[in-house]
Amino acid sequence: MTELFTKVLDMSLTGAIVTCFVILVRLALRRAPKIWSYALWGVVLFRLLCPVAFSVPAAPLSLASPQVTYYGAYTSTVSYIPAQLTQPAHSGHPFAEAAVHQSAEAVSALDIGAVLWLCGIGVMILYSAVSYLQLRRDLIGGMNLEGNVYLADHIGTPFVLGLWSPAIYIPSCVPVRERVFILAHERHHIRRGDHILKALAWIALCVHWFNPFVWAAFILAGKDMEMSCDEAVLRQLGPGIRAD
């Protein structure tokens, strides 16, 4: 478990760096179509969920420590061996004992961090389950409008529910003349697979709940997703409906 937590920390750190880069590019593209900003968040999502490590080979001399071997009274040669092989064994030397003690403390801290990480994931999963049950209760009594479109009395905003057979739910209080825009918006979400990407983004947030940069990425990506969808609807229905 500690090894898995260490891997998650590495992924989370890299994800934070990529998030900062995307935020800077997002600012530069603030006047560009939002689909470009939305597409950039895919890079962050990939790094947060994909355990592939990208490493850069280090300089050979930085990974080795010198050892001088004497072959005679006036000659010598320098050879390099891996640093791990030159570390002193636990032989009672005070420096060796201090190194072993620090290593034990580091392992203990990682063990504690792994436990806290799992507890945080459990809280996120519990929150998701409670929210889903509450949502299902609010949808009781919903009326089918057409196809996969439903009207519900106890919801405050339209949304898409479901992964494999997504359904669109619209508040019953929404005026009929506005439904055409809402349906165009939500159907574009489904065609683009946003409901699946949002689920993957939530999984990434559950795994990296301790990283504030992941929370920022989740919120900003959601905004770019909605605005890019609005832009798509405007292109589909024409700029004349912008005010509506």
How do the helices and strands line up, and which of them pair or pack?
Elements: H1 2-28, H2 34-49, E1 64-70, E2 76-82, H3 83-86, H4 94-138, E3 143-146, E4 149-152, E5 159-161, E6 167-171, H5 176-192, H6 194-207, H7 212-237
Parallel strand pairs: 4-6
Antiparallel strand pairs: 1-2, 3-4, 5-6
Tell me what the structure shows.
There is one protein chain. This protein has helices at 2-28, 34-49, 83-86, 94-138, 176-192, 194-207, 212-237, and strands at residues 64-70, 76-82, 143-146, 149-152, 159-161, 167-171. The chain is an alpha+beta fold and 244 residues long. A four-stranded mixed sheet has the order 3-4-6-5, with helices on one face. A two-stranded antiparallel ribbon has the order 1-2. Strand 3 (143-146) and strand 4 form a beta hairpin. Helix 1 packs across helix 4 (94-138).
Short description:
The protein has helices at residues 2-28, 34-49, 83-86, 94-138, 176-192, 194-207, 212-237, and strands spanning 64-70, 76-82, 143-146, 149-152, 159-161, 167-171.
